[in-house]
Every structure is written in structure tokens, then in C-alpha cells.
């Protein structure tokens, strides 16, 4: 539970960003929730520290539902949020592959472009790793996301081979 002074707003935004970064669910005004597993501990601690440094009040509680249906409801909400994250990831995989296809269509085979595409692939890999760590209940899209990441890596390898061929054939 977090309460941060309204001004300056940068403090509220910093706390909000930290909680969103770790995948916390906003349950109500100032009330956030994550499963009680180690992957969230550092992020929760960081959000609490940010709130207190801003002159706010912060409290971490361990809570359980009143019955199994509450636990199931929380799990469904949390998994739905991860599904949305995975959907965004999958869309970015599509954008990445479209970018590579455009570079191939326009024959833009430069080392600078290859480096940029490799950095984009590394960003996808980090994002996949972060989402996998947060997806503690196993959203159905996770398997497809792993497959798509491998396809992106293969497409990048193909593009790299084309770049090197173009550079060596000149």
C-alpha cells in the first residue's frame, strides 16, 4: 500500500514506474499486488523506498484471500496482465521481422544497420527474460513468445549473413 504526496508528481511517477516495471497489479488507489515469490522482492523494496524518500507512506503486507476463489481470481487477473505483456512482446517481434524484411528489400546491408538490428534483438531477449521471470502462473502466450523470439534470432542471423556476403562481394 503506497501513499505519495501529490506534488511534485515525479515521485508518484517514479513509484508507479517501478511497480509497473515489476508487473504489479493496481487493485485500487495506492494498492498494488504481486505474488509472494522472490522475483518481485527487489522491486517491491525499491518502490517502498521511493515512496518513503518522497515523504510518503508505504507498507508491504502478505495477504491471502478469504477463500480459494479469491486466490483463483488474483491468479486470473495477474495472468491476464502477463498475457497483455506477452501480446505486446509478440507485436514487437512482428515489427522486428518487418524491419529486417524492409532492410533486405532495400538491400541495406551495412555493418551499422546490422549492429542496430542486433541491439534490437538483444532488447527483445532482455524483455523476454524479464517477462518470463514475472510470469509466475504461466500465461498461455509464453510458449508462442519463446518460439517467436527464436524466429527473430534466425531472421537476424539470415540478415547478418546477407550483410557479410554483400560486404565481401564488393
UniProtKB/TrEMBL annotation:
Residue ranges of coiled coil: 97-134
Assigned keywords, A-Z: Coiled coil
Record protein name field: Chromate resistance protein ChrB
Lineage top rank: taxon: Bacteria
Domain ChrB N-terminal, chain residue ranges per copy: 12-169
Any one Pfam family match given in the protein's UniProt record, by short name: ChrB_N
InterPro entries reported for this sequence: ChrB_N
Amino acid at each position: 500500500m503506497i501513499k505519495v504526496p501529490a506534488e511534485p508528481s515525479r515521485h508518484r511517477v517514479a513509484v508507479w514506474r517501478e511497480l509497473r516495471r515489476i508487473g504489479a497489479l493496481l487493485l485500487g488507489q495506492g494498492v498494488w499486488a504481486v505474488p509472494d515469490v522472490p522475483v518481485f522482492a527487489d522491486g517491491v523494496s525499491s518502490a517502498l523506498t521511493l515512496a518513503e524518500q518522497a515523504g510518503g507512506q508505504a507498507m508491504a503486507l502478505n495477504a491471502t484471500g478469504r477463500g480459494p476463489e479469491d486466490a483463483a481470481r488474483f491468479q486470473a487477473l495477474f495472468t491476464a496482465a502477463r498475457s497483455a505483456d506477452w501480446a505486446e512482446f509478440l507485436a514487437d517481434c512482428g515489427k522486428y521481422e518487418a524491419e529486417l524484411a524492409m532492410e533486405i528489400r532495400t538491400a541495406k546491408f551495412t555493418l551499422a544497420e546490422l549492429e542496430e538490428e542486433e541491439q534490437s534483438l538483444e532488447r527483445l531477449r532482455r524483455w523476454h527474460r524479464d517477462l518470463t521471470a514475472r510470469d509466475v502462473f504461466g500465461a498461455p502466450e509464453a510458449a508462442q513468445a519463446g518460439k517467436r523470439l527464436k524466429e527473430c534470432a534466425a531472421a537476424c542471423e539470415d540478415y547478418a549473413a546477407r550483410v557479410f556476403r554483400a560486404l565481401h562481394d564488393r
